[in-house]
Amino acid sequence: MTSTAPVAVISGASRGVGRALALRLAADGYDIAGTWNRNESAAQQVRSEIESIGRRATMYRNDVADGEATAGLVEAILADHGRVDTLVHNAGIASRGRFVADTTSAEIARVMGVHAMGAFHLCSALAPIIRLSDRGSVVLISSTATSYPGAGGAPYMMGKAALEALGTTFALEERTHGTRVNVIAPGLIVTEMGDRLAHALTGAENAAALDEKTPFGRVTRPEDIADLVSFLASDAARQITGQRIEIHGGCPELVH
Q: Are 139 and 91 in contact, with CB atoms under 8 Å apart?
């Protein structure tokens, strides 16, 4: 079925930043094709919220690290929606915080599989489809960790660095097809993962407990990321591609 509305594919759309992305792009007029991997009830709650504002939403269970599964996902999305205009690769996992000497190759493969290979699988499979759109846009969610590395995070930083390298190359390749590709690199965000990170590195109860330590009075919220993605996917950003934009409220080193 071909949609008359633009369609956004969002990986990791069930919670945190992904949920905020799905709701914001739906409010912008997009139908949403979101992926989830662990929490079906949360994914279906997001679907219901999107439908309550009059937009269409489909939620698919998918392991983005699995290239064959992602190829099947794209086929399902096309069958359900008929088009894709925007891709946001947001799915992510944390590494275990071990030093390189104590990190296994399986851990590297696990983390890079989601961040780097997941982005690659989605970009590769969706590129020919997004080229057909007159508003094609791809946004890859990275992290300020690639600029402000900390000990004990090699798998995560390797995954995000590879994701950014993909974004730079993909932007050069797709510009002749009219598709814009940009990278967003957030700092600490108030999410479940952000809460765990803030507690582990600072002893704070959660990420929001660090609000008063930031120049603008609060740690970045998922809605801040969604606002930026909304802009990059809009006509107002027609001339913006190949960029890496940090968003951290003036405090990139908060947990580094």
A: no
| Helix or strand run (H / E) with residue 35 | strand 31-36
Just give the CATH number of 7-188+222-241: 3.40.50.720
Active site residue 148: no
Cα 180 to Cα 243: distance, rounded to the nearest angstrom: 9
Question: For the residues of 226-243, what is the DSSP string, one character each?
Answer: HHHHHHHTSGGGTT--S-
What Rg do the C-alpha atoms of the chain give, in angstroms? 17
148 three-class SS: coil
Distance in angstroms (rounded) separating the CA atoms of residues 27 and 120 = 28
- pLDDT, tens digit, 9 for 90 and up, residues 241-255: 999 999 998 887 776
Q: Are 100 and 154 in contact (CB under 8 A)?
A: yes
- Taking residue 132's Cβ as centre, other Cβ atoms within 10 Å add up to 13
Helical (H) or strand (E) element with 137: strand 137-141
Grouping H, G, I as helix, E, B as strand and the rest as coil, residue 109 is: helix
Alpha-carbon separation of residue 6 from 159, 167, 183, 210 (angstroms): 30, 22, 21, 38
**At residue 228, what is the residue type?**
L
Regarding pTM above 0.85, the answer is yes
Per-residue pLDDT reduced to its tens digit, 8-27: 999 999 999 999 999 999 99
Domain ranges for the chain, please list them.
7-188+222-241
35 forms beta bridges with: 60
Name the catalytic one among 30, 60, 148, 156. 156
Give which of 194, 188, 230 is closest to 88, Cα–Cα: 230
Helix spans in the chain (H): 16-27, 40-52, 67-81, 105-112, 118-130, 154-174, 192-202, 222-232
